[in-house]
Design a protein that fits this description.
The protein folds into 2 domains: 10-210 and 338-398, 3-Layer(aba) Sandwich (Rossmann fold); 239-323, formyl-coa transferase, domain 3. It has 19 helices and 11 strands. It has helices spanning 19-29, 62-66, 81-91, 105-108, 113-119, 144-151, 153-156, 171-194, 204-209, 213-222, 258-267, 271-275, 282-287, 289-300, 305-314, 325-330, 332-337, 377-384, 389-398, and strands spanning 10-14, 33-38, 72-75, 96-99, 124-129, 198-203, 239-243, 250-254, 318-321, 340-345, 349-354. It has a 6-stranded parallel sheet with strand order 3-2-1-4-5-6, with helices on both faces. Strand 1 (10-14), helix 1 and strand 2 form a beta-alpha-beta unit. The chain is elongated. The two termini are 30 Å apart.
Length: 402
């Protein structure tokens, strides 16, 4: 698909878990030829999560396939000279190399940046690690929870007086994936302008710290230490989530002015609440936020969630339903957006997965199903790298190709 923005760009993908695979799927959808290097001897942990239809298998993870679309897979043993040699040959024909192993792992394979730029001077290489490649914590092993803890965001997450909390799921990995895609494209643009490759060192924790500007700036400027405030906002009330009729159904409501609060009370048929001196101004509502939230909760729990949301939106009030996963997928806006599409997979069959959350007027991204492990090994070795069938057989017999 030569009309795509990254057509002609090749990516050697040494990533695993979530962050780098997320990055490279986006690059692949935009036209890059992404080749993922894997090993059946030490497969990606995600290949064993979320077995399709409850049937486990190295190629049956719905989670793996949902974040590894639009790429090919080859199976190598990088611990062997032959396997690392194939990887170097692939890198010599690639524009971008991306990895998120522990610090020093690529060097053990002879695939660190110093070796790679000697092989291909204009190569762009990016590494994503919990705490970066240099400094006193460079050797730290980490996943999302400890990276979040180091970043400071867990200190801000939770309810007042409660314990520090994570934010659920594997949130930082996917944000990191987007940032890594941006970094790779910026370096690629720089290379195309100057002819110079470069190495990009991304620290997951530092990136997340950069996403909590309010707490950081208040500390720098005023010496104040923030703590968890739940769903509240220091300057706006109400600003939170309130129960509605039914089992575990909630609505998020924010009013940013006294007029909006009065309109909220009209919808809730509670003129006395609007007239209450404790709530009549923003300053008063903030001072009496506990009482405000209790009273609003008693009013909203009598009402149907979706009907309430519709009435509030008609009044120009920011409101929305708290969806579970099934409701998100069934919502008309999500269905019409085209974010979720059906893709075929060799073993799992035809499945719906989420793709890029944007649409382009000038082109259609290239989406195809995630690869089985090593599915494209012979194709890449013969058609791209020029190995003969005899050479591939020898590599396989020697254990370099799996």
């Amino acid at each position: 698909m030569s009309d795509l923005p990254l057509a002609g760009v090749r990516v050697a993908d040494f990533g695993w878990i979530f962050a780098v695979p997320h990055t490279t799927s986006w690059l692949g959808a935009l036209g890059a030829d992404v080749i993922r290097i894997e090993s059946p001897k030490r497969p990606d942990l995600v290949r064993f999560l979320g077995a399709t239809e409850g049937k486990p298998g190295i190629n049956r993870s719905g989670l793996f396939h949902s974040i590894n679309f639009s790429k090919r897979s080859i199976a190598l043993d990088l611990n062997t000279q032959a396997g690392a040699g194939v990887a170097r040959r692939l890198i010599s024909m690639s524009d971008i190399v991306v990895e998120n192993f522990g610090t020093g792992v690529m060097a053990r394979f002879g695939l660190d940046y110093e070796h790679l730029r000697a092989l291909k001077p204009d190569v762009v290489m990016m590494s994503g690690t919990p705490l970066g490649q240099t400094g006193p914590y460079a050797g730290a092993i980490g996943y999302g929870p400890n990276s979040l803890a180091f970043s400071g965001i867990s200190h801000l997450t939770g309810y007042p007086g409660g314990e520090p909390s994570g934010i659920g799921g594997t949130w930082p990995d996917f944000v990191v994936g987007v940032v890594m895609a941006m970094g790779a494209l910026a370096a690629l643009h720089h290379r195309d302008r100057t002819g110079e490759g470069q190495y990009i060192d991304l620290s997951i924790a530092e990136m997340v710290t950069g996403m909590i500007p309010e707490a950081m700036m208040d500390f720098f400027l005023n010496g104040r230490e923030h703590g968890p405030i739940g769903n509240r906002d220091p300057d706006i009330a109400p600003h939170g989530v309130f129960p509605t009729a039914g089992d575990d159904r909630w609505v998020a409501i924010v009013t940013v002015s006294d007029a909006e609060f009065t309109a909220l009370c009209e919808v809730l048929e509670a003129p006395a609440t609007a007239a209450d001196a404790r709530f009549s101004t923003m300053a008063a509502r903030l001072q009496n936020v506990d009482a405000l939230e209790r009273e609003l909760g008693e009013l909203t729990r009598r009402l149907d969630r979706d009907e309430l949301v519709a009435k509030l939106r008609a009044k120009g009030i920011a409101a929305g339903p708290m969806y579970n996963t099934a409701e998100v997928m069934a919502d008309a806006a999500m269905v019409e957006s085209g974010m979720n599409i059906e893709l075929d997979h060799k073993e799992a069959g035809r499945r719906v997965i989420p793709v890029l959350p944007v649409s382009f007027s000038g082109f259609t991204p290239n989406y195809y199903g995630g690869p089985a492990i090593g599915e494209h090994t012979d194709q890449v070795l013969s058609e791209l790298l020029g190995y003969s069938s005899e050479e591939i057989a020898r590599l396989r017999a020697g254990g370099g190709v799996l």
